[in-house]
Structure formats: structure tokens, C-alpha cells
Amino acid sequence: MGAPRLSALAGKRPGVSLLPPDATFEERVQDCFLAFRGSGLSLSAIDAALLRSWVDLGIPFDVVVRGIRRRAERALWDAKPGEPLLRSLRACRSAVEREFRHHLARIVGRGTDPEKTRRKKWRAMMRVLTSASPQLAEHLSSVEDRIQSGDALAICAFRALPFPERIDLGRAVKQALALDPIRSVQARKLARRSARSAIFRKKFSLPNFW
Description:
This protein is mostly helical. The protein has one domain (25-204). It has helices spanning 25-37, 45-57, 61-78, 93-107, 114-132, 134-143, 150-160, 163-176, 185-204. The longest helix has 20 residues, at 185-204. 28% of the residues are buried.
């Protein structure tokens, strides 16, 4: 299974992040976006203006990151090998603004119950896994009550796969993410989790469950 590859910047020392401890909202979003893109030191002027508009709207950081991640996972699902996942922050605009609308709807009580939605996706996923890999579904049913997020679910399911399948999927994740070493640890972890989730879901044709 092919996966797009993010090229790391040459000549940078591993583990060195440009993100200061007291980073601003804009700096944190930029760090996250560039981790998914895999290269670059700053946003374009147009992308920077878009980010400022999100600040003016009061969009929370977690909502922006969730929109960027959803856009990156969709790109990872569809992209051809060698294609960049995200070319610009503008490509994430609709996903971010959709997440913000959902966020506002939940605040005023018009949104869907996140727990109810999660359980619905859980059941849909389990039906698919039962058909595709009965031994995997059996393992997940025993730990379901302890799983609190889609990321944790992907990790548990990933570890429950037969060893050869774990190796193949692990290689696919590494192929998708030659992570830029100057990004923050948090941003690199998020990009890695996103790739693992998307590749695992693609293998079993699962819905998005985080």
C-alpha cells in the first residue's frame, strides 16, 4: 500500500524545535500545520492572514488543530505516493471552519452528543472488524471500556494485529512521515497518530473514529 511521503529538512539537528515555551496561538498552529506538511519554516502571507482571521473569530486552538488533522487524514487516504499532504493552510480552511461550526453548535446545545456519536462509530467499526478480522474484534471488545479516544483505539487495534501485518502497517506509517525534526514533539506526535489512524482505517475501510 503506497503512502505519500513528507520530506524532512536537510541539515537540521534531530530533536531541536523552533517553538518557544511561551509560543503564541499563531506559532502553535503554524508548528502543527508544518509538521503535517513536513517542510518549511513559516506560512505564506496569505496563509498567515487566514490564521489571523481565525484568531479574530476566537476559534480555539484544539478546534483548528482538529480541522487541520481531518484535512491531512483525508489527503493521506487519497494522495498518490510522493504527493505532499498539505500544500497550504488554505487547503484546511473548510475543515477548520466546519469544526468551528460544530464547536459552536455544541456550546449552545444544538450539536450532537459526542459520546453518543463515538459509540455509534464504535459499533460500526466493530461490525467491519468482525467481518475482516474476527480475532482483532475479540481483542478490542475486551478493552473497549478502557478506550477513551479514537487514537487509543487505533493503537490497541494496531498492537492486536498479527505480527506481519503490524510490520507492514508500521512501514507504511514511516513511509508517510519522514517528520521534520525541528517541529515540536507535540506536533510530531500528532502527525504520527494521524498517519497511523488513517492507514489503519484505510486497511479495514473504517469510518473516521476520533
